[in-house]
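Worked Example 4.2. Read the sequence first, then its structure tokens.
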Amino acid sequence: MAPLELITRGYELVAARPASLLAALLALVVVAWRPTWRLTRTAVTIAHEGGHALVAVLVGRGLTGIRLHADSSGVTYSTGAGRGAGVVVMFLAGYVFPPLLGLGGAVLVAADAATVMLWIGAGLLAATLLQIRNLYGGLAVLVTGAVLVLVALRAEEDLRTGFAAALAWFLLFGGVKAAAELRRGRRGGRLRHSDADRLAELTPLSGGAWAGFFLLAAVVATATAGWVVFAPGGAPA
């Protein structure tokens, strides 16, 4: 395909889905601009720690609690063996869970199921709230869940769909940025006790390789969401 034809085709696809483009651009601005990223990054941390917690339960570990902090860090506590496939999958889940949630949300929005996406999100947050063990974490999860429920119940259809789409893109772009920050922080000599480092202790791969994998997974999820939403035949939104 010639460059001009490719540009023309891209313009036609975007023009057919202006609301989807606006939601994606809004999410990108929120993630890219440092003040808004600092304000909203806790939402990505909630998804991150929720991924750890969910997988810990699925692999049979004892989940004892989650703590979220005002600096956007968090920790999930579980009991069980210190090594093995279950522990590897649990540590693997944190950085891949936000972009996977975003991809799932984008698929639901494209299928005209934005309300379903919001209620699924609210349900996951309710389950997470039961495991929170500190005040800040409880407030962060409660406020986030309340916003989702309020939009699902009160917002007009167009606003509800736009909010769900923006949330999906936020989790996707936020997942990419969080993984990129991890990779950059490790290269700078910081973040030496991250999920990537724990995985390096449990597997033959280095921490840098795991950090690169997290970033690749987030980028692939984001690209897949773009294909779902903007490819020919995708649902207009």
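Now turn to a second chain, presented in exactly the same format:
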Amino acid sequence: MSAPSTETDKQRRLRARLAELIAAMSPGEPLPAERDLARELGVARMTLRRAVDGLVADAMLVRRQGAGTFVAPAKVAHRLAANSFSADMRSRGLRPGSRTLRSGRGPAGVMLAALLEVPTGTPVLHVRRLRLADDEPMAVEDLHVPADLVPGLSGADLENRSYYELLAERYGHRIASGTQTAEAALTGAEDAAVLGVDPGSPAFCFERTCRVDGGRVAEFVRSIYRGDRYRIMADIFPS
């Protein structure tokens, strides 16, 4: 947590006391009413409000319009590796889930065909899913798969199911390798509405292609992860 250099000792003490209070609370728990909290801490409500604003900016608290101020959800740490969402969440002690928002088949355009290494116009299955961790929105995902690789697969099949597991169990294709990129992003209006955050909120954008045994590209996925719930980790090895 970084404090502005213009803070007085009194303001720093107030932020520290609020940080101690937050540390003793559970993620998602509401902050006490402003009037009561100001009285307990012995400060003016305006002073308290400025301190809370700073903790919101530090992502320790979140405001929900019409509901109040809450302790921010704990962030999920993610090591840089091409792994399935379901496996990643399970490895962190969270229950993965997904809800299909829409799905359909259509011809691949030039860019998508190049990513999937198929001719332009090849039928492609597109499934848009909301990915959940312990029933809370974590990411919104757009999955693109060559339709002939997964005949009969539908968006309904992917409701609360791992694509990689279905790919192996139903079609006999196992993921052999993958390439993933990650970059900082801001949520657009449509993604923000699905994720339950404000438009323009910080996010991570992941794009991934994976190949199955035999070398064929089995997917192109673009995912937007909530920046307030997700953290990226990388291992460092001395050279």
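Notes for the reader: The CA atoms of residues 150 and 171 lie 7 Å apart. The radius of gyration is 22 Å.
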